[in-house]
Amino acid sequence: MHLFALAPGEDLQAEAFYIRHFPALVSAAIARFAIAEDEAEELADTVLLSSLRHLPAIDDVQTWLLGALTSALARQGSEP
Amino acid sequence: MKKPRRPFPQRAADFGSTARQMAAEREAAAVVVDRLLRDTPKADWPGLAGHPDLSTWGALDRVAKIFSQALTRDPLHALAIAELAVSAAEGIAPHVYPPLITAQLVAHAWKDLGKAYRALNRHQEAVDAFTRAESALAAHGTLAHDRAIVRFNLAVTLQEIDRHGESLTILNECKQSFREHGDNRLLVFSGIAEGVLLQRLRKYREAREAYLLILASARPIEKESLAALHKAIGLCSIELGDFTDAESNLIHSIALYEDLRQPLEVLKARTGLGRLYIRRGEIEYGIGHLRPLRRSFLQRSMPEEAGICALEIIQGLLQRGRADEAERLARLVIHEYTAAGLNTRALTALGYLTEAIATRHATAGLAESVREYIVSLRTEPEREFRYAGTARG
């Protein structure tokens, strides 16, 4: 898998990836952890950015993104 | 202060821009980094740390790939590469990438440095490097996967310095994180690392259970990991006296390694099969099976593996009362180890065995202890040889 290889004509591939996953992450953060929408958006944005390094090797992108989101929220919840 | 809320199109555009920057850097680095490392004498590499062509995400990604290729082939060379990567990553200005991307760069550079130290048996330095890697990630909650990768390496290193309990605890945390991120490959590796540790502690039943759990999972397992798992289950089964399972697993492992065209691993798994035959009492057959394997190791200039194989043969010879042959073979191994300049502690243990054989006090158990000891020197080169049994026994 070569996500974001950006061959000619693929300029918007990264944006498409973002558009595909961002709303689901925001919804998951709000539904599961009852956080405010602006906070959920910020977190979803950070999760997607975190995935960039790993993307070519990730087998199941959705699982990875939700895993990163859940870990971050769980950690926030455990912090004093 | 709270960051102003960015509209969705702006967020997507920013993400696209970062992704494009990284892809462009990766493409440029494929040529530039290799040339830079090739054309600069290694002694001058520390001066490259601030070079603009190296201080990019793409360049460090390329350096990490070169490091991976070097690690098993030439750990000292890998160390030099990792040191350069750490300096370059630490030197990246804060505004160039989003902070969490810089944190990933710094953390993975330190992690690779830790791996290089571990390969050179500099375990405390490795632990320190992994700790630095982890602290680089501390401020970023979404980097839990990166953190698990670093801590997996820490756990593997802790095994080498006998901090077994900590290692097991960390491996369990890592397995949880890899599961949550759908990282099956590292989930399997963590399970294997757990099994290896249990084997080291001679908890063969628990080790085999750990390996079987991985096999039983519905997750896809790479062929190479599968081969390693079957071999490990086979070796545990020998120790548990479960010879039927041992044989089927070792044969399965050999077939997989043959498919993978890994002749060295085939030889090692076949050596396990030889051990099985001897333990099962098919001593002549086992000796006949092991002799050509020993020759193959020698032909490949692998005297250590050849010696380990010889110690399996010696166990068989001692069980058959063929002490003269066992003694000749033990002396030959000493000669081969001396010529190859291998660990002098191994020579001491072999010398002890040879004298015990010469005075007709050696047992197969002593030969097995010496074999285990020599294998353990790979990870614990300073370990002393102690034989708990009696040479007369």
Can you walk me through this structure?
The complex is a heterodimer of chains A (80) and B (393). By secondary structure, chain A is an all-alpha fold. Chain A has one domain. Chain A is built from 3 helices and no strands. In chain A, helix 1 crosses helix 2, helix 1 crosses helix 3 and helix 2 packs across helix 3. The longest helix of chain A is centred in the first third of the chain and has 21 residues. The relative contact order of chain A is 0.15. About 6% of the residues of chain A have low confidence. Chain B is mainly α and 393 residues long. Chain B is built from 17 helices and no strands. In chain B, helix 1 crosses helix 2 and helix 12 runs antiparallel to helix 13. The chains are: A mainly alpha (80), B mainly alpha (393).
Query: What oligomerization state is this entry in?
Result: heterodimer
Helical fraction of chain B equals: over 70%
Order of helices and strands of chain A: HHH
Number of strands of chain B: 0
Broad shape of chain A: globular
Flag low-confidence runs of chain B: none
